[in-house]
């Protein structure tokens, strides 16, 4: 595996960053806000400039979410495919801004769109990462009834990521929702077994199990604060880590 010489100060060499679709809408409440996308592009660029190989999975909730669509009368299967297309739109938005900033990018999708995206194959993804490209995975798993959290866990396993980061608006995992419970306390580290026992809502159970069974380290952090991604990659404790031990 090839890494840039600048990587000496980094704790992790290859990561998978999971962002929610809602994170791209900024203060607009819907759709894609350029400033929000630019923020995440800057965070990713800083990691690449330090020699870290970066894969990205983005949700589609800012445009369409299959579960919500089903509650309003859409067929769940059809709704999930619509949601997959939303994740591809988000992937292309991030690709465009990253390229504006001089970062090499490949968009690989489970649903191939000829002339625009390339079909996901893990060997190609790894090769692109080793060549210095940011690889954005769109389309989730390519199957209905699976979340983009599960898609992120799957891609992290496929590319053998050293770390799966879940970027949120909260600075880690708490005993309860800190936005609702002022007495909630934060974990700096927790095991998968403890998280399961406490029924903490970190990821859906399929994603959670994939990470646990494949020994993927998960890190939950506040992705909205500038510089935080680099702080995590340098080993600073600003969020919550989840591991088997």
Topology:
Elements: E1 14-19, H1 34-49, E2 53-58, H2 66-71, H3 76-100, E3 105-109, E4 118-119, H4 122-130, E5 134-138, H5 148-158, E6 163-168, E7 173-174, E8 186-187, E9 189-191, H6 192-197, H7 205-213, E10 218-222, H8 228-233, E11 240-243
Parallel strand pairs: 1-2, 1-6, 2-5, 3-4, 3-5, 6-10, 9-11
Antiparallel strand pairs: 7-8, 10-11
Helix pairs in contact: 1-3, 5-7
Report on the structure:
The chain has 245 residues and is of the alpha/beta class. The protein has a single domain, classed as 3-Layer(aba) Sandwich (Carbamate kinase), CATH 3.40.1160. Helix content is 36%, strand content 19%. The chain has 8 helices and 11 strands. The strands form 2 sheets. It has a 9-stranded mixed β-sheet with strand order 4-3-5-2-1-6-10-11-9, with helices on both faces. A two-stranded antiparallel sheet has the order 7-8. The longest helix is centred in the middle third of the chain and has 25 residues, at 76-100. The chain starts with 13 loop residues before the first strand and ends with a strand. Mean pLDDT is 93; it is low at 1-5.
Précis, in short:
This protein has 245 residues and is of the alpha/beta class. 36% of the residues lie in helices and 19% in strands. It has a single domain, classed as Carbamate kinase (3-Layer(aba) Sandwich), CATH 3.40.1160.10.
Structure characteristics:
two-stranded antiparallel sheet; nine-stranded mixed β-sheet; Carbamate kinase; globular; 8 helices; disordered N terminus; 245 residues; alpha/beta
């Amino acid at each position: 595996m090839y890494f840039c010489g600048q990587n000496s100060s980094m704790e992790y060499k290859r990561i998978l960053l999971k962002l929610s679709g809602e994170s791209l809408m900024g203060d607009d409440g819907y759709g894609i806000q350029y400033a929000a996308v630019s923020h995440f592009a800057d965070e990713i660029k800083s990691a690449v400039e330090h020699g870290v190989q970066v894969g990205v999975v983005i949700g589609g909730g800012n445009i369409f979410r299959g579960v919500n669509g089903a509650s309003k009368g859409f067929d769940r299967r059809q709704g999930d495919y619509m949601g997959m297309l939303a994740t591809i739109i988000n992937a292309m938005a991030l690709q465009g801004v990253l390229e504006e900033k001089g970062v090499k990018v490949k968009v690989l999708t489970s649903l191939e769109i000829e002339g625009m995206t390339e079909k996901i194959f893990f060997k190609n993804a790894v090769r692109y990462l080793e060549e210095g490209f940011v690889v954005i995975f769109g389309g989730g798993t390519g199957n209905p009834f699976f979340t983009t959290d599960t898609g992120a866990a799957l891609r992290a396993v496929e590319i053998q990521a050293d770390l799966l980061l879940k970027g949120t608006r909260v600075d880690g995992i708490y005993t309860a929702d800190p936005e609702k419970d002022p007495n909630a306390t934060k974990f700096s580290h927790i095991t998968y077994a403890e998280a399961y026992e406490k029924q903490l809502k970190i990821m859906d159970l399929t994603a959670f199990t994939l990470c646990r069974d494949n020994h993927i380290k998960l890190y939950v952090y506040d992705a909205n604060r500038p510089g935080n991604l680099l702080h995590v990659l340098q080993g600073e404790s600003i969020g919550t880590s989840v591991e088997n031990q």
